[in-house]
């Protein structure tokens, strides 16, 4: 009888110990699984980040037209990526480096300032030159990025006023600080498109010609029809030929295509 009691107690003890071990083992396993799950959840937590919505060139301004918001798992995200919650801190900034569509925008993509991003658009061997224009000379501020213009030069020779072509078929890439890439962003802030300076990307020779023209007379721009590819020779006009209808001299203006950036106010 006594032996049966002892045996029973041993069996009960063994079962209890086994149950306790199973309980604690199950708790340990469950805790480990939950910790691992939490770690994976944190690692693959989707974060809303700013990405390029198209292939973007250096010099492009960040705006609602050039970027979008996309969810990307934290584990696949660069630590330098810009979160959507920080969008206001970078809106309007300039890209110093090109980006592919869908690529997250990084702090390292951004130029230190607008000028740094803009200068990156200049081709090797070209120079940026700025000169002032008044409302009349700039076609009453109606030029837009993507337009093409001819530049006229007016001066006097003795007592005779003369107007002649200076440069032709010049592509406009910006008006004021408004460019094709930042136009939508700037239009949201202000619809005004006034400007009072012109900045051109030219060869050093053409920069010298424009600089001399500023000092010697007046510069006026003419808007070209966008599909007009015709090479023309513009007449040199004098006051005498204008009044009397005399035969005017034909001159061949410089036709080197130069990029023109209209800037200022």
UniProtKB/TrEMBL annotation:
This is Pilus assembly protein CpaB. Residues 47-111 form the SAF domain. It comes from Povalibacter uvarum. Pfam families: RcpC (PF16976), SAF (PF08666). SMART domains: SAF.
């Amino acid at each position: 009888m006594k032996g049966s009691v002892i045996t029973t107690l041993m069996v009960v003890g063994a079962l209890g110990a086994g149950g306790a071990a199973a309980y604690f083992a199950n708790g340990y396993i469950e805790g480990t699984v939950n910790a691992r799950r939490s770690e994976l959840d944190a690692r693959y937590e989707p974060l809303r980040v700013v990405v390029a919505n198209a292939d973007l060139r250096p010099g492009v301004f960040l705006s609602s037209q050039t970027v979008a918001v996309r969810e990307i798992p934290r584990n696949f995200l660069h630590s330098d990526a810009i979160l959507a919650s920080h969008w206001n801190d970078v809106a309007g900034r300039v890209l110093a480096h090109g980006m592919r569509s869908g690529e997250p925008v990084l702090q390292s993509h951004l130029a230190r300032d607008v000028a740094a991003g803009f200068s990156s658009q200049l081709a090797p061997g070209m120079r940026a030159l700025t000169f002032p224009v008044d409302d009349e000379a700039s076609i009453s501020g109606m030029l837009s990025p993507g337009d093409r213009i001819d530049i006229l030069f007016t001066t006097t020779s003795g007592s005779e006023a003369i107007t002649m072509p200076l440069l032709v078929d010049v592509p406009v890439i910006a008006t004021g600080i408004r460019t094709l890439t930042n136009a939508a962003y700037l239009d949201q802030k202000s619809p005004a498109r006034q400007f009072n300076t012109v900045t051109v990307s030219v060869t050093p020779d053409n920069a010298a010609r424009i600089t001399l023209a500023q000092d010697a007379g007046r510069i006026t721009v003419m808007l070209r029809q966008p599909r007009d590819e015709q090479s023309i020779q513009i007449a040199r006009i004098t006051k005498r030929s204008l009044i009397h209808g005399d035969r005017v001299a034909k001159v061949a203006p410089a036709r080197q295509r130069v990029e023109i950036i209209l800037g200022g106010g």
